[in-house]
Design a protein that fits this description.
Blueprint lengths: L2 H9 L6 H12 L2 H9 L3 E5 L5 H11 L5 E5 L7 H12 L9 H15 L3 E6 L9 H11 L4 E6 L11 H7 L1 E5 L22 H12 L4 H20 L8 E2 H10 L6 H13 L4 E4 L5 E4 L4 H10 L2
Parallel strand pairs: 1-4, 1-5, 2-3, 3-4
Antiparallel strand pairs: 6-8, 7-8
Helix pairs in contact: 5-6, 7-8, 9-13, 10-13
């Protein structure tokens, strides 16, 4: 069944837990005045627990922040770019002209703008652990924003591993107050990737498909795939004319032997089977008769993959 068919079937299924989920939301709504008090104490709020917290955050916005300045960031959007969001906000709200794309310049522009205009500025971040936000650099920038005295950040989180990106410096700036708000709500607003193939997909969906398979494999298989990705990125940059060939299999075997990822040709080929099965790797013969391996993703997608799996 395709995604549309699955969605159509699910719409006909009645949720037997609907009343209990609504009761949970009502209970959490009683916390709204407390959350406002937390903001007044110059703390930020992190909601964790099972289920989508989008409806809860939107209800909080309507009930408590309707007369306030609020920036909503959909972190669950796989193409979410924090620097781009802040840059677009400043350019649309202030007559400041074009803003450089460097994160430091964007942050300084945002900080100056907030200082000049707002006494209180609220940011609602759906999924601080979204795919586009899962790097140390982005989380550091976000902590800098959260530390501004005018900024009040409330965010949701689902991935238990994201806090590993936070050092003591980021934690000191975030000043989190944690609330367990399990809603058990469906992630109906979140993109669900089709994992049947990679070619022809958008960068974001292709990356999601890749990560889904990649995270299920053993450590050596992951390291081998990263070697192919690194070679391909460097090849596209250094020799675009030959970029369609990919990495020579013999070169991959040499690297893997030197790094002790495999001990024989047969083991290497077994490690690659899963990638072939999910169309995450292509093999073909070059004009010289040698076997070449290529990942069917764009250079930008591979760079993002390498950054998020380092």
């Amino acid at each position: 069944m395709c995604q549309a068919e699955v969605a159509a079937v699910m719409e006909t299924v009645e949720d037997p837990w609907k009343s209990r989920k609504e009761a949970l939301l009502s209970r959490y709504e009683q916390l709204f005045p407390e959350w406002i008090m937390v903001f007044r104490l110059q703390k930020n709020i992190l909601l964790h627990g099972a289920g989508s917290k989008r409806t809860l955050l939107e209800t909080f916005r309507g009930a408590e922040l309707s007369d306030e300045s609020v920036l909503v960031i959909d972190g669950f959007d796989q193409q979410c770019d924090l620097v781009g969001v802040l840059r677009s906000f400043c350019e649309s709200q202030a007559d400041c002209g074009p803003i450089p794309k460097q994160p430091v310049a964007v942050f300084e522009t945002f900080r100056t703008f907030i200082d000049d205009i707002y006494a209180d500025f609220y940011i609602i971040l759906h999924n601080i652990d979204g795919q586009g936000l899962r790097t140390s650099a982005v989380q550091t920038l976000l902590s800098d924003v959260a530390a501004l005295p005018q900024v009040h950040l409330i965010a949701s989180i689902d991935h238990p591993g994201l806090p590993l990106l936070w050092g003591q410096s980021e934690l000191n700036q975030f000043q989190w107050v944690y609330y367990h708000t399990s809603t058990f709500a469906d992630y109906t607003e979140f993109p669900v990737p089709d994992l049947t193939a990679v070619e022809g997909k958008t960068t974001a969906v292709a990356l999601t498909s890749l990560r889904h398979v990649f995270e299920s494999l053993n450590p050596n298989a992951k390291l081998i795939y990263r070697e192919i990705a690194k070679f391909q990125v460097n090849e596209d940059k250094d020799d675009p004319a030959d970029s369609e060939l990919g990495m020579p299999y013999k070169e991959l075997y040499r690297v893997c032997r030197n790094e002790f990822y495999v001990s024989s040709d047969s083991i290497l080929r077994k490690q690659l089977v899963e990638y072939y099965d999910h169309s995450l790797l292509k093999s073909k013969r070059g004009p010289d008769g040698l076997e070449y391996l290529r990942i069917p993703l764009s250079e930008d997608a591979l760079k993002k993959f390498l950054e998020t799996t380092a």
